[in-house]
Amino acid sequence: MRPQVIIIGRPNVGKSTLFNRLVGKKLALVDDQPGVTRDRRFGDASLLGLDFTIVDTAGWEDLDPETLPGRMRQQTEASLIGADVALFVIDARAGVTPLDEEIARYLRSSRVPIVLMANKAEGRSGDPGIYDAFALGFGEPVAFSAEHGQGLADLFEALRPHLEPKQAEEDEDADEAGEDEEEFDPESVLKLAIVGRPNAGKSTLINKLLGENRLLTGPEAGITRDSIAIDWQWFDPEREGYRPVRLIDTAGMRKKAQVTEKLEKMSVADARHAIDFAEVVVLTLDATRGLEHQDLKIASMVLEEGRALMIAINKWDVAEDPSGLFQGIRKALDDGLAQVRGVPLLAISGRTGKGLDDLLKAAFEIRAAWSKRVPTAALNRWFDDALAANPPPAPGGKRIKLRYITQAKTRPPGFVLFGTRLDELPESYRRYLINGIRRELGFDAVPIRLTLRSPKNPFATKK
Predict the structure, then answer these.
(1) Which residues carry a binding-site annotation for GTP?
(2) Which residues fall in the annotated binding site?
(3) What pLDDT shows up at residue 80?
(4) Where is this region: Disordered (predicted)?
(5) What ranges make up the beta strands (E) of 26-69?
(6) Overall pTM > 0.70
(7) What domains does the chain contain, in order, with CATH numbers?
């Protein structure tokens, strides 16, 4: 395990900007308004040869634990458990505030080493705040500008005494592991994104899988803003062993017309980005609301991106007329997702844990179908049988010749069909071939791409 460095501070002092600076990517959402970050976000950081895990946290606020900001603070407090260093960030231009002093008192009671950072220290406007920061009792603050990258060398010097010994231990462990590291192939990790409308129970579902309150939850819609990736090991009861999973929680997706605020637009864009990097996407439905038009739009978007799709009806423990609800959703999905019929549909409860093992099992199975490659000989045997059972039409009395088919790619499966006059091949026949590939060759309900390719006419007039 890499050493872990936690970023802590009150809202809007630049914690997420610092996080993005250290990981070298714009992973965390950043905006001028306070309170953008709500869940912990982990990233791999490297600073002048120091490699560590950096953790962005929600802004520290002094409010009732039952409120949303209060629950966010509890998540931040939990992040200190297991941390090797805490970066306590203040706003140098605003100076030390009473809330900064309260955070300092809390941090002094912990056993985690503290590095004080005076952010937004570019120019001379931050000098008074830097001098005030000495009074917090953590020694000389690191003058820093996360926006402009100033002060990286000073931050390195402040972190080095705490991280270098940890990094040396990690290197020794890696040497001792030797060949065992090869068993942890990144390609074997199931990248599983959880998507859906706001308040469908996505974060509660992930917390139940993890067995801890890792993500912020509550009755308020739209709590999750960043797409949060969590590496986890699922115990497969059939194999009696653990299988690696990367769980990705995403922000709720409302109808486009209802998304007017800049921050929500950023959150939805981040969720779409998470779908691009997932292998399997679980669309969660709220059993108390059933299937809505927005759910079908999200499902269509997932399929258009070429991801393997599953539907999970969440909150099944409070569903009314469960049998009727399930059958109604099944029929609506088959009617509304004509491009892929038979998408896996499961009933689960993120609160009680019902159906979660079945969900993970089905996710691994559909990923296997999504990654499958059919031998060319078997593919063309199926192709010959399909043509014999239903020959292509002959528009205008002229035959459309379909010569052969090959699989060009996987993840998602992509096929290329070769023949002549393919521009006149009806869409209905194209669907017939795609459905046959899916049904006869074991691709189940995964999206399939079929490209039509005709040879160039050597006698065509050249211009």
Answers:
(1) 9-16, 56-60, 119-122, 196-203, 249-253, 314-317
(2) 9-16, 56-60, 119-122, 196-203, 249-253, 314-317
(3) 83
(4) 166-186
(5) 41-47, 50-56
(6) no
(7) 4-179 (3.40.50.300), 186-370 (3.40.50.300), 376-453 (3.30.300.20)
